[in-house]
Amino acid sequence: MYNVSGIVQADTKRSAYYGENFGIENANIVIDGNVVARTDEYGRFSFNIKSGSYMVDIVYNFGFTRTVGLTVSDGDVIIGEPIKIVACDFNKDKKIDSADQNLFRIIVSSKKGDPAYLSYVDLNHDGYINAKDYLIIQSFDGIDACSYIYPELNLA
Question: Which residues pair with 48 in a beta bridge?
């Protein structure tokens, strides 16, 4: 058995925060229908697996699932580049639209500890639901999971 570790982050390439690293908490790492790991508050994950080639699904309740290839040879695998996902589908309807923005508007200005605060909407993890989060959400407006294609990614 070999250890595989990496990080899942919100894809910010379309926003003013391009290059920023916002980890995704509670994303499931799934192989052959089995959850092998779950990301921590920083988006980190780790699991053990035999050598071989696998298709790995990154499943996040408030985002679009991403599938990546993984090859484990004769040693541990540390995935150097973060795996980026779309993470703004707050109402889980498989599209980023005004409904997701409306949820944001309801809880804007809430902070960690407030009853209205939702950690999955605080995309930059600063403890506040504010304009910084909205810029990321807005950058994905109009994207539909049925037509959105992630770039191919194979992990070695």
Answer: 3
